[in-house]
């Protein structure tokens, strides 16, 4: 039976989106997921986003990595699925108050225009330092952040693989390398589940913004993030107890094409 899919990207972080309100797509079919995400023999994507029914919210988001493993929260994917729900499925009417359920709980979003989405992320409470690495969770997603020089020529994949499993999470971490230059946080990310460098990472951008403020490298509460796939903005507030709250990730969500597959 043929299945419709929609290809999206958020700053080059690309996804296959599927309307799974019928429940017909098997999220446990690892081989099918790998085949769909394969960049030579399939559609090609960093992961799959399933839009499913939710009793309490506009919809539920399920994220699956390209290796078939269940993903944690994905910021770029979150923006894309909000765009999908509103512009293509027409199941979201209120553009200023979109609410959906993800693996890390409730998320709110605002549709700013045809391609820009403002997404509220979960609070960040625990930040740790180890040698020259900063560690934190953005929602349920663990991130290492390391500041480097000459980011453009930095060997991201080879260095990240040394760090990926030496962490506090049994599934490994996302590893982010950052260079602060001319008021912009330039970053590159190696993502677990993809097991490669991606063009962008939304939870990574959030983590880099918070870590930069925590370390005193970022003075204000708005961070401009530049990645190989484009730019994102992160806003936040810091409470007296050190908690970072009201964290918003703003950036593009771009519909690329629609297709069918068996």
UniProtKB/TrEMBL annotation:
<feature type="site" description="Could be important to modulate the pK values of the two catalytic cysteine residues">
    <location>
        <position position="143"/>
    </location>
</feature>
<feature type="active site">
    <location>
        <position position="74"/>
    </location>
</feature>
<feature type="binding site">
    <location>
        <position position="13"/>
    </location>
    <ligand>
        <name>substrate</name>
    </ligand>
</feature>
<keyword id="KW-0457">Lysine biosynthesis</keyword>
<comment type="subunit">
    <text>Homodimer.</text>
</comment>
<feature type="binding site">
    <location>
        <position position="65"/>
    </location>
    <ligand>
        <name>substrate</name>
    </ligand>
</feature>
<comment type="pathway">
    <text>Amino-acid biosynthesis; L-lysine biosynthesis via DAP pathway; DL-2,6-diaminopimelate from LL-2,6-diaminopimelate: step 1/1.</text>
</comment>
<feature type="active site" description="Proton donor">
    <location>
        <position position="74"/>
    </location>
</feature>
<dbReference type="Pfam" id="PF01678">
    <property type="entry name" value="DAP_epimerase"/>
</dbReference>
<feature type="binding site">
    <location>
        <begin position="75"/>
        <end position="76"/>
    </location>
    <ligand>
        <name>substrate</name>
    </ligand>
</feature>
<comment type="similarity">
    <text>Belongs to the diaminopimelate epimerase family.</text>
</comment>
<feature type="active site" description="Proton acceptor">
    <location>
        <position position="201"/>
    </location>
</feature>
<dbReference type="GO" id="GO:0009089">
    <property type="term" value="P:lysine biosynthetic process via diaminopimelate"/>
</dbReference>
<dbReference type="InterPro" id="IPR018510">
    <property type="entry name" value="DAP_epimerase_AS"/>
</dbReference>
<feature type="binding site">
    <location>
        <begin position="202"/>
        <end position="203"/>
    </location>
    <ligand>
        <name>substrate</name>
    </ligand>
</feature>
<keyword id="KW-0963">Cytoplasm</keyword>
<dbReference type="GO" id="GO:0005829">
    <property type="term" value="C:cytosol"/>
</dbReference>
<keyword id="KW-0413">Isomerase</keyword>
<feature type="binding site">
    <location>
        <begin position="191"/>
        <end position="192"/>
    </location>
    <ligand>
        <name>substrate</name>
    </ligand>
</feature>
<comment type="function">
    <text>Catalyzes the stereoinversion of LL-2,6-diaminopimelate (L,L-DAP) to meso-diaminopimelate (meso-DAP), a precursor of L-lysine and an essential component of the bacterial peptidoglycan.</text>
</comment>
<feature type="site" description="Could be important to modulate the pK values of the two catalytic cysteine residues">
    <location>
        <position position="191"/>
    </location>
</feature>
<keyword id="KW-0028">Amino-acid biosynthesis</keyword>
<protein>
    <recommendedName>
        <fullName>Diaminopimelate epimerase</fullName>
        <ecNumber>5.1.1.7</ecNumber>
    </recommendedName>
</protein>
<dbReference type="GO" id="GO:0008837">
    <property type="term" value="F:diaminopimelate epimerase activity"/>
</dbReference>
<dbReference type="InterPro" id="IPR001653">
    <property type="entry name" value="DAP_epimerase_DapF"/>
</dbReference>
<feature type="binding site">
    <location>
        <position position="174"/>
    </location>
    <ligand>
        <name>substrate</name>
    </ligand>
</feature>
């Amino acid at each position: 039976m043929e299945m419709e899919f929609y290809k999206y990207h958020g700053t080059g972080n690309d996804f296959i989106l599927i309307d799974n309100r019928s429940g017909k797509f098997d999220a446990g079919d690892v081989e099918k997921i790998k085949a769909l995400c394969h960049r030579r023999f399939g559609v090609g994507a960093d992961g799959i986003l399933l839009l499913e029914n939710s009793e309490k919210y506009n919809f539920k988001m399920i994220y699956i990595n390209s290796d078939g493993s269940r993903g944690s929260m994905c910021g770029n994917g979150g923006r894309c699925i909000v765009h999908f729900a509103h512009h293509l499925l027409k199941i979201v009417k209120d553009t200023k108050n979109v609410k959906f359920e993800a693996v890390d709980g409730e998320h709110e979003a605002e549709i700013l225009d045809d391609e820009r989405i403002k997404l509220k992320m979960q609070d960040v409470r625990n930040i740790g330092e180890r040698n020259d690495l900063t560690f934190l969770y953005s929602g349920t997603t663990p991130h290492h952040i390391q500041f480097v020089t000459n980011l453009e020529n930095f060997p991201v994949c080879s260095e990240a693989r040394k760090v990926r499993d030496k962490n506090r999470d049994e599934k490994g971490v996302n590893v982010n390398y950052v260079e602060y230059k001319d008021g912009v946080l330039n970053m590159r990310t190696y993502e677990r589940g993809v097991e490669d460098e991606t063009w962008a990472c939304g939870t990574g951008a959030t983590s880099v913004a918070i870590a930069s403020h925590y370390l005193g490298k970022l003075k204000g509460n708005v961070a401009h993030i530049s990645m190989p796939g484009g730019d994102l903005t992160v806003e936040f507030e810091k409470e007296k107890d050190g908690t970072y709250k009201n964290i918003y990730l703003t950036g593009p969500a771009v519909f690329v094409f629609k297709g069918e597959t068996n």
